[in-house]
Design brief:
It contains 30 helices and 30 strands. It is of the alpha+beta class and about 775 residues long. Among the domains are: about 220 residues, Ribonuclease H-like superfamily/Ribonuclease H (Nucleotidyltransferase, domain 5), CATH 3.30.420.10; about 80 residues, Alpha-Beta Plaits (2-Layer Sandwich); about 100 residues, RRM (RNA recognition motif) domain (Alpha-Beta Plaits, 2-Layer Sandwich), CATH 3.30.70.330. The chain has a seven-stranded mixed beta sheet, sandwiched between helices. Strands 6, 7, 8, 9, 10 and 12 form a six-stranded mixed beta sheet that branches. β6 and β7 form a beta hairpin. The radius of gyration is 32 Å and the shape is elongated.
Length: about 775
Amino acid sequence: MESSSSLSSSPSLCNTKKRKNTAVGAHEKAKTLKTEQEGDEALQSGRLSRSPRVSVPLDCLQQPITLNKLTELLHYAALGRTGGIKQPSWCRLRHQRKVEGLNVVIVEGLTQSHFYKHYLSLRQLRTKYTTRVTFTPSCNNVASGIFSSELPKMDCVYFSKPDNDLHSALKGHPVIAKFGTQRRGLTAYVLTQEEMIKKHYPVKGMPGFEEFVSTDSVDCVTDSSPLYGLDCEMCLTEKGHELTRVSVVDSDGNCVLDDLVKPKNRILNYLTKFSGITAAMLQPITTTLRDVQEKLRMLLPGDAVLVGHSINNDLIALKLIHQHVIDTSLLYRREFGQRFKLKVLAETVLKRQIQTEEKKGHNPSEDAAAALELAQYFIKTGPRQVVERHLEELWGYTIEEEESSDCKSAPTPSLRFADILQLLGRSVAFLGKRSDVALNLSNQQWYSSDKEVLESFKRQTKHPFLSVVQFSSFSNHLKRRVLHQEQLHRSLCANLRDMCVVFAGPFPAGFSERQVRRLFHCCGPVGRIKMLHTSVRVHAEVEFELLEGATLALKTLNGLNVQGQPMKVQRPMNESMLDLDLTLDALTGDTLNTSHLYAIKLNPSVAECIKSSAKLTDTRSTLSEETVTETFGHFGTVERVILPAKPGKHTRHACIKFESSEGKHAALSSSKYLRQENYLICQSLTPPHLPSWVAMATPVTTIRGDGEAAEDENTANMYHSSQDLEMDHMMKKLDSRLGKLFRSLPDSTLSVVVLLGHTSVNGHFPGLCLMEVKQGS
């Protein structure tokens, strides 16, 4: 570390002529380094320069991305401009045509706070993924959202044109392929036990359903057996989704049961937008799950057939096993296992509006009746007539009398991502726990643990073009720690704050907060200053807005004479700072910062002002992108300059991104010369996307009865515990698995890891999206 007192005593700041001479020398040295750098780059530019690469512009890193933006990238990576897909506006994927596959790993339960809390433990994630951006999920089922994401209308040259007549349209239709063309009785549409097991319905004797209650069903039903429509609403509790309302209608459409149910566990979210359930509705309710289970057992005759839309979810919420069910989402089948929403089927087939926006949540009686009528209509009409009547409005086929070479007259294929890839002969797959994923079951592989998921993925001799892998162990672990996210966020924010703080002093008597601010402003934007007065001396706690500010203050101002009195600048000493040196080393070597440099411009007279502690009238010097590029372009090609100025404020500091790390190292090796040009520089430490995460994270502070916040300043430090050690161990294990999975990917695969984030009554905690294209070894 250079002596900071040299800043105040350097003769180069007093001798303009000498400064010019040394500056020229610096530029000559920089040119030499740049020439060497270009030569080295030329030797290895052959393969790497032509390999696909993904990056996010610095200004876009300040904004979080949603699932829609992520799918934009996946669509472009898979189909490119030849498929009519535009390059996403928020990122850049170079050499898209050379992308050989897509892999998305979804880690449930983890947030960006977890990543930076356990930053040192996540070596694989830190080093293998060069792009990192804040992620905020726009739906609960990200895997399903990826497979079912809609694409813009594509050029029909991508698809072989089917025969344009009714016979051809019916021949390969999923409904006809399953049920044939003949009209049959209801027993033809009752799910077999094998189908129920495959589609995760509660089945007696199957693992996971040991505590479920069974109805008194006969072994076989007939075509005259009674149909009953069923629908349930759920809320989110500490233990997951639990029943809050159940409705049953008989075969005539009469509602025979409509009960509100009090969940056993504490409710985190009533899901009112979907369920229509509010706290006021459940407040007087005493009916339990056990009560409605008994009512249903008494209500349903032995040969009853239950009808519902994705009725497996309702039975799981009821913890009920019933042998004979018809699922309308599987009657009106779509290509590749996709399912129509009940709202769409009701509107198209029954010509009835349900689940309308003006209604607060769903009406389960209405939904149960709609599902029942859809099943009755299908049975009465028969599969062929159902398909013929609704071929265009439901399945998107337009039948023309004559063949036409015009693409517009051809049957329009589904424009969902997974469908398009499979039509093009590219395989897709989902690996993870059992869940309702919008994908054909033949493309899903279910496992009970993350270890099994990883081992199965590694065993594959040929990887699918699009694979979505879901790790769920953290989600199960964190469900037992309700306040974990809020406490973790507070802890991490406190640690980040400590990393931006320095203690300075002693100062001469009467030295004011304003003078301290002016003094430390030369190292970066200063946030809060707290003056510390003792009976003898004056000290100050200075909090910078950026990690680099504190680093430069230690490097530049420690040991400086302030009005004849040496000043000491040091870090705070507390538990959170014990591994600070390791953290700073890791941040310095972070893949996000390999070619980034932090620079601040000083007024030419600042050194003399600091030396004499005279009145600092102006320590600022305005920067522009042009001047920064001109100055630092001598060390290497400057790819981008970010000037994070606030409206009406001077721009004094900049984040400089070089085209390669050699440019940054050349500038750092010339720091003495740059200081003579009134620049202070250091390696970038703050990840570029961090401000967007800090701005988005909104923990909710719990208020005690006396009106005081339940958390005090010590809450932030409560994580150094056995739970912390357990979490750190799990994070290391996760990091190892992600590293093994990445290594098993074929070269030129776009790899994406998504930490989903977390939203609850305790606040919103954003996730993190990491991206990299795997290069050949």
